Amino acid sequence: MWITSSLTTALTPTAVALGNFDGVHLGHQQVIAPILPKPVTAQAQALASSNLEQFSNPDTSSPNLDPNLELIYPTVATFNPHPREFFSGQAWKLLTPPTEKAQQLSALGVQQLALLPFNRELASLSPQEFVEKILVKQLRAKQVSVGEDFCFGHKRAGTATDLDAIASAYGITVHIVSLYKRQEQRISSSIIRQSLAQGDIDQANRFLGRPYTLIGIVEKGQQLGRTIGFPTANLHLPPDKFLPKLGVYCVEVSHTPESSNLDTNLSSHPGVMNIGMRPTVKGTSLTVEVHLFDWSGDLYGQTLTVSLQKFIRPEQKFSSLDQLKAQIQRDCEAARDFFG
């Protein structure tokens, strides 16, 4: 995937899905679907690979391809920082920080992620100016897809219907996608955040269409877990990652491709995770610790992906390490039962 925060380096022309897409949940996937290409010819695939390679390596010469063939790049155009962060002046925690969002979009078949710098200039554009300057001149959009509740332009004055009316004058096809629902409940990033905050992992995962994940680098902690028989991997997460309810979870752990130098394959390895302040040992900072079942090996410095499967219990303080150890044992037994 080609990722750019400068529209001067965007691959064009484009088919664009517009929105924040935080979480890349099932509703977002419905909005993205219209811009994804149907099966393309080998010629078009070669052209796409050539163009992407030239952007990464400008000196690469082009292969002998049909000059009349024009490839339209499936592109997600989103905003960085999140508009709520810009207007509030406060950090906004994300279900999918930029790197994770790019991974999810790439898996869907999106070829380009355009991170539109959300600043005073962009926020002041009228709906007409947004279409002209961003979609027409910069992205050379041939088609655009948005959700039916999409708003854009200064003070969110433009609606999806307005976008259709303005863009059609430039020959741009606009797809307005109905809000996606499951069991009569609208799927939204807000609902998923609420579910995670309540420990309702089942609903969050259903609406995401996949398990909610935490991706981080293993760093050294106080190593208290190994003293009571439950060694843990301490994860350092992106600072803008949204964390679910504090407590203990059933998880599956895998390593990312760049961490393939592990001695043992860590694909879908079960375990338990604790997110919290560790009140029993008078912890002073929030930690994310993962205990892998039947695992031994050095994970320091490795990037792990932790998929949340089930919430076991909220965080609590115990009067002794023995009580804590006994509870962790029960947590592990509950998780092993869950995984069968």
From TrEMBL:
It catalyses: FMN + ATP + H(+) = FAD + diphosphate; riboflavin + ATP = FMN + ADP + H(+). Belongs to the ribF family. This is Riboflavin biosynthesis protein. It comes from Moorena bouillonii PNG. InterPro entries: FAD_synthase, Riboflavin_kinase, Riboflavin_kinase_bac, Riboflavin_kinase_bac/euk, Riboflavin_kinase_dom_sf, Rossmann-like_a/b/a_fold. Its EC number is 2.7.1.26, 2.7.7.2. One of its GO terms (biological process) is riboflavin biosynthetic process. SUPFAM superfamilies: Nucleotidylyl transferase, Riboflavin kinase-like. Gene3D superfamilies: HUPs, Riboflavin kinase-like. Pathway: Cofactor biosynthesis; FMN biosynthesis; FMN from riboflavin (ATP route): step 1/1; Cofactor biosynthesis; FAD biosynthesis; FAD from FMN: step 1/1. SMART domains: Flavokinase. It comes from the Bacteria. Keywords: ATP-binding, FAD, Flavoprotein, FMN, Kinase, Multifunctional enzyme, Nucleotide-binding, Nucleotidyltransferase, Transferase. Residues 207-340 form the Riboflavin kinase domain. It is an enzyme of class 2 (transferase). GO terms for molecular function: ATP binding; FMN adenylyltransferase activity; riboflavin kinase activity.
